[in-house]
Amino acid sequence: MVELSRRQAIEDVASDLFREHGYAGTSIRDIARALSVQGASLYAHVTSKEEVLWAIVDRAAARFEAAADLAEVDAEARRPGDPAEAFAALVRAHVAVLTADVDEASVFVHEWRALGPEHRRAILERRDAYQDRFRGRIEDGMAVGTFAMTDPSIAASTILSAVNGVAGWYDPNGRLPAERIADHLVDLSMRMLLNA
Amino acid sequence: MVELSRRQAIEDVASDLFREHGYAGTSIRDIARALSVQGASLYAHVTSKEEVLWAIVDRAAARFEAAADLAEVDAEARRPGDPAEAFAALVRAHVAVLTADVDEASVFVHEWRALGPEHRRAILERRDAYQDRFRGRIEDGMAVGTFAMTDPSIAASTILSAVNGVAGWYDPNGRLPAERIADHLVDLSMRMLLNA
DNA sequence: TGGCTAGCCTAACGATCGTTAGTTAGGGCG
DNA sequence: CGCCCTAACTAACGATCGTTAGGCTAGCCA
Known about the structure:
The structure is a homodimer. By secondary structure, chain A is mostly helical. Chain A has 8 helices and no strands. Chain A has helices at 6-21, 28-34, 49-78, 83-100, 102-110, 117-143, 152-164, 178-193. In chain A, helix 4 runs antiparallel to helix 6 (117-143) and helix 4 (83-100) packs antiparallel against helix 8. Chain A binds a DNA duplex through loops.
């Protein structure tokens, strides 16, 4: 574990603690203790507690967005106009980001409620836009008959909830490597959608 | 909204606030303010803040357990030995409890982390046992060929995450009645499992 | 050698936390 | 009337919260 910058180290342990005890359940002094430092010392690197939360959530959101961008480009290059391929790529990319840093991703999934009104609104907008990408691909697949009829909004929301559930039990040192987990989630997601 | 007892009213507003801001993010005085009462006044009805959380979580857990009991008996009466019927009944019962009191159910789903060590352990045990009921039915279905091969543990956990996601967007005054939502979730869950 | 910088320290601020103690107001009932 | 019960009150406790201010130290570079 190389420590790139002090600021990064703070966000790393904050992610861990926010995930375990929540934002409100974690004090500045808790974060400092994990770094063997006094609470007040953190303010040399950070302007407020909420700024730390926002940095984590914003970075996680950006990771999900960038991974989805790349996944859609890749899928289009491999099998142009294939909604099943595109959707599977989205799910696989999502699992990859989720498992690459479970702490960060869990904070993104659960702790956005603790953000102030403007940051909260901003992240909800981005979350909606992200969910719309999934929904759009489902609609594409329904239009060409690849996917069975269903409510695309509910399906997108349900699949994202299902995939995010991985954050609750994934263990980087566990039995299953991240890619096998992604295989399972892609499989289960596609079964929900594909026409029999 | 009939107020059965003062204690019940406290747990109701506590469920609402815990769901919105989390346990740690909600103070005793916040709960009291929602009841137009001083913070200290609550201690005539309650012994501690955590006791309130435990009461909510324990009651919600009991509701899910009782609904699953009934669902399994019903399914067995309707179509004895049919794993698909049994599993569908479990999912439908889960959605019914979830939508009957979203606040309470959301607190159960998200805030068990805030419980003390012994309550936390107890609720995790019950959650595991509950999840095992879903997993067991999946294994039954796989054994007789009704359900397609998959990892039953991952499937159970994923389906429960998917269904719990409903707590994030269900609106009792919304467009979709709870039973139509249950229809969707049963449909999506069964598609994940059924052999094509 | 001297200064710059990064990183940490101690001390303290006002606010808020969960909780306890003791008291008061009002309604039902003997 | 007097009694009790329910439900609220005010006041305060010690602890902890996020945050600010100001000072110290060790390493690097000129």
